[in-house]
Specification:
Blueprint: E1 2-5, E2 13-16, H1 24-36, H2 40-65, H3 70-81, H4 84-87, H5 96-111, H6 120-136, H7 140-156, H8 162-186, H9 205-212, H10 214-219, H11 222-225, H12 240-264, H13 268-290, H14 303-318, H15 322-353, E3 355-356, E4 362-363, H16 368-380, E5 385-388, E6 401-404, E7 428-433, H17 439-447, E8 455-457, E9 463-468
Parallel strand pairs: 5-6, 5-7
Antiparallel strand pairs: 1-2, 3-4, 7-9, 8-9
Length: about 475
């Protein structure tokens, strides 16, 4: 629940229920904050560390559960810990990704722990797993479906009678439907979420190729190593044609790798979980991209597929000729070096160039001088309103209210209602990047209809503060 200044009367407030993000990524750090009396930055580090260790141990136990040796399981979690996705949260807390990693291995462990589903233990597991997984991250729902499909096939495959399969499905369906119903009616239906907005159908190569390429994109840090193949906020590494060629190459390698793993790893449980998750991921994300749901083309969405290919790959490498072991070792070393470099560079940037306020979080979309000015005004007033175009900046405001506006694209249609606030309250401070001066700053100024004669305070060369009484 978030309290915002009202669009029709800025002096009043309204409550908004946010269902876009899962709740755990905020509530777990808040729990640590309450227990240890730390700031948000410090509790984020505690959350990341605890979840990272729980996640590694969970996947170690799961890999052993489905039949891999202790040494393959240890090497698998060691390989996972060397990937950029494992260390990235220490640079930028990515919330649900952290919690999902902690829970996913244990969820899979549970899916392979029951031999029948017609008693209370598996039913309680199914009900609780859906709720806990969604609490960690909303995108867990497709993982939930894939995991339950594995469980259903496992407990039913010994029988050739279709009635047995149907009965098992009914037993599992009752707690699964109950879990999804609680999630939908208790949370998702109360606000917008990524599945509630879609656009026209978009049929393109990447719609299907990107999910197919997930083993390389996520399992071997392919998307991280190229700084985001299709989603690259800091700019693309390749030309558009080059990007398509790289995507095609990754798709071919990924499909070939999946074929090899499914054919040559003599482990029926592993083949089941790998095949089901790869297939469900392809169907789910291809559909999402086809309908242009608010899901980005990022390898992190397929991390579970990337994690699952690791033990099978290591198993095959352990049985291969020495030359292939050396080649894999070099790939592993390269991934580890790039991850250490990423962590080292990010840490230095956070320390030397990072902007910090009372929350303890590193703020990326403001400079220290401008933030200091904002914090000073926050201390001097109790009725001021601060306006930002970055959601994290509101975490630094302790005494006044704030409004977070969606960034205004340079060449795109916007809904003016989102930027319109009637009435007048206390003094207002609008913090904008310097390139907003002109048309975009004018749009935001005109949106606050009860304020006139905005004055511009150029605190630095990078940010401007528009203020009015």
């Amino acid at each position: 629940m978030r309290i915002n200044p009202d669009h029709d009367n800025i002096a009043a407030n309204y409550r908004e229920f946010l269902s876009w993000w899962s709740p755990g990524q905020y509530l777990l750090p808040l729990l640590f904050k309450s227990i240890f009396s730390l700031n948000l930055g410090q509790t984020s580090v505690v959350t990341i560390t605890v979840c990272a260790l729980i996640g590694l141990f969970g996947f170690y136990q799961f890999f052993k559960k489905i039949g891999f040796s202790a040494i393959i399981s240890v090497l698998s979690v060691a390989f996972i810990a060397c990937q950029q996705a494992y260390v990235a949260p220490y640079i930028f807390y990515n919330g649900g990704e952290v919690l999902l990693f902690a829970f996913a291995g244990w969820f899979l462990y549970g899916c392979f722990s029951f031999e029948r589903v017609n008693n209370w233990k598996p039913l309680l597991f199914i009900l609780a797993a859906g709720l806990i997984g969604f609490f960690c991250k909303s995108s867990f729902m497709w993982i939930y479906a894939a995991g339950l499909l594995c469980l259903w096939i496992r407990v039913s495959q010994s029988s050739k009678e279709i009635v047995k399969w149907i009965i098992n499905g009914i037993w599992m369906g009752i707690p699964a439907v109950a879990s999804v119903a609680i999630i939908f009616f208790g949370y998702l239906s109360r606000g917008h979420n990524p599945a509630s907005q879609s656009h026209h159908i978009r049929l393109a190569l990447e719609t299907f190729a990107f999910p197919l390429a997930s083993p390389v994109l996520a399992g071997f840090s392919g998307d991280d190593l190229v700084h985001g193949l299709l989603f690259h906020p800091d700019g693309p590494m390749f030309t558009p044609k080059g990007t398509i060629l790289v995507l095609i190459a990754m798709t071919i390698v990924s499909v070939w790798l999946m074929y090899v793993l499914l054919k040559y790893v003599n482990n029926k449980n592993y083949r089941l979980v790998l095949g089901v998750f790869y297939g469900v991921a392809f169907l789910f994300f291809s559909y999402a991209y086809l309908r242009q749901l608010a899901i980005s083309y990022e390898g992190r969405h397929f991390r579970i597929v990337g994690l699952l290919i690791v033990p099978g790959t290591l198993y095959l490498v352990s049985r291969a000729k020495a030359i292939y072991k050396v080649l894999f070792g070099l790939i592993w070393l390269f991934i580890a070096i790039t991850s250490v470099g990423f962590l080292s560079h990010g840490y230095k940037v956070n320390i030397d160039e990072g902007v910090h306020g009372p929350s303890g979080l590193t703020q990326q979309f403001i400079d220290q001088e401008t933030l200091n000015f904002v914090l000073q005004q926050d201390k001097l007033h109790s009725d001021a309103i601060f306006v930002f175009v970055s959601p994290d900046l509101g975490l630094e405001i302790n005494h006044c209210r704030f409004i977070t506006l969606q960034p205004i694209p340079k060449h795109s249609h916007i809904d003016m209602y989102d930027y319109s606030y009637k009435g007048h309250a206390g003094p207002i401070y609008i913090v904008l990047p310097i390139d907003y001066q002109g048309v975009r700053a004018g749009i935001i100024e005109r949106g606050f209809r009860g304020y006139r004669n905005f004055k511009r305070a150029l605190i630095t060369d990078d940010y401007v503060v528009l203020k009015a009484e």
